[in-house]
Amino acid sequence: MKAKTATIISMSVFAMSLLFACGKSKEPCLSVVDAEQDRMIVLSGDKIKPANFYDADFVVLGGGLGGIAAALSICSSGRTVILVEESSHIAGCFDPQGTTQFRDNRFIDSSGSSKSYQEFRNRIREWYEKKTEKPPEIFSQLFNGITDFGGDNFCFETEAALKVLNDMIAKNIERGKLTVVKRHKVAKVVTFNNRVASLHAIDMDNLVVSQFAGWMFVDASRTGHMLPLAGIDFIRGREDASDTGETIAPAIADSLKPSKYLFCTIPEDGAGSDVIICDVEESLDAPVADSERTRKIPVYDRSRRIRSLYRITTRDIAKEHYTGHRGAFFRDSVGIGYYPISTVGKDGEALTIETVPFQIPLRSILPVSFTNVIAGGRTIGASFIAATAYMAPSVEWTIGEAAGEVAAYCAGYTINTHQLVNNPVHVRGLQEWIVSKRGVPIYWYDDVTPNDPDFAEAQLRPFDESGFHEAQTSLHYREQ
User: How far is it, in rounded angstroms, from Cα 300 to Cα 296?
Assistant: First the structure.
């Protein structure tokens, strides 16, 4: 049966440069799966030479919430950025044919998110007010049993998200600070000395290759498909309990089986052509064996996650590990989040694990080896189980925003990400910047908002005063 486009997108199709063999000659080639057109594109010969060249201070992969937040942060610093989106529109994390539904915590419109994310939510509401329409309501019962997630009914159609996000980035595009390139999918990564030098992406409409060069790269994609192409260490499957220390983790690690397969057959008249296009179909199993003309492509539900300088686990965020109101304290915090863990138990049953308000450490968004790549969303370094708490829209936005600020800060001091994270003075300088200038909370309170005059003082105090965090008995700041 022919795969439906929306289904392919929602299942997070990954498309590595499969090096499709191009016959027995093994001629170099690049290939990607075009999810919107249900096809595979294979380029070889002169077609793999870049026809277009894009250059900016930074390159952001993925036009979802994390990618948009990263781009806005970078542009706010006066730097230039290229946003590369696989689909035909930004906000790619939203189903283009349906309603976006999610729950957020009860603090999200006050103390639980940054100024920019609150602006996004407010603009969504204004969009409906101007149209004199009522936003759709969430009908999902997800997390109804958890008090902090029972009241938020923030919901909207994709049309609203597209309008708001396009409006938010419009000025940067007009000023030449932001270039948005759609319908491009990365097929090759050029690296040098533990740095990404450039990306080669296939323009899926014009069937040519475009090259993207930048000083740093933010991976805000949903699948992390750049990671294996660049040789960046990543994890996709479930770690074992001895590795992460998580009691609900399996005794033996697994590599995460594909949820389904896509398969395609090269047309007989495709041999010798520099451009080969073959239709893609889907199956729940793998009925077709690889051959000279046929390839099967596994599809996974979960993104690849970087092997980071610090891996977040349930011990850092799960409520069962804390008697207080906050999770683990990270001195290198660059943001906050709060969302339950959704996973599967050892016997296959669905589990929802309560968390406590948590921080996002700088080390969790930096790969172990590469020094100019930053995770900007779902590729964050977290265990398979803990990673589900970082998939909430507000948390994805926060990660992307942090990635953008990290990139801009590094550019300002001409240092790489490892030089930043290994220098406490620079880490503190970054925190002061994002708190004071960007209105980004890095510590949890329920009574201090980004608009309060003492916001910066409250946010930075736990990192200045020894023992302050340990003395906290609630989420309140002014009552301490």
Answer: 13
Per-residue pLDDT averaged across 181-195, rounded?
97
Burial of 473 (0-12, 13-18, 19+ CB in 10 A): exposed
Q: Amino acid identity, residue 393?
A: P
Angle between the N-to-C axes of helices 158-174 and 65-76, in degrees from 0 to 180, rounded to the nearest 10:
20
Residue 44 lies in a domain: yes
Q: Encode pLDDT of 372-420 as tens digits.
A: 999 999 999 999 999 999 988 899 999 999 999 999 999 999 999 999 9
Cα distance between residue 221 and residue 61, in whole Å: 6
Location of structure tokens 């929306």: 6
The answer to whether the predicted template modeling score (pTM) of the entire model surpasses 0.85 is yes
Upper half-sphere CA count for residue 418 (Cβ side, 13 Å): 11
- Count of CB atoms within 10 A of residue 465's CB? 10
Q: How many residues does the chain have?
A: 480
Kindly list the distances between the CA atom of residue 191 and the CA atoms of 86, 396, 479, in Å, as whole numbers in the listed order. 21, 27, 52
Query: CA end-to-end span of the chain, whole Å?
Result: 62
Residue 190 lies in a domain: no
| d(C-alpha 33, C-alpha 126), whole Å | 37
DSSP states along 187-252: EEEEE-SSSEEEEEEEETTTTEEEEEE-SEEEE--SS-THHHHHT--EE-SBPPHHHH--TTS-SS
H/E element holding 461? Answer: helix 455-464
15 within some domain: yes
- Residues 224, 304: contact at Cβ < 8 Å? yes
Cα separation, 107 vs 358, whole angstroms:
13
- Which runs of E-coded beta strand occur in 257-404? 260-265, 275-283, 294-299, 305-306, 333-337, 341-344, 350-353, 358-361, 373-375
For the chain, give the mean pLDDT: 87
**What's the total number of domains in the chain?**
1
* pLDDT at 11 > cutoff 60: no
Domain-embedded: residue 228: no
Closest CA to 340 of 317, 323, 321, 359: 317
* Residue numbers of the domain that contains 274: 5-48+257-299
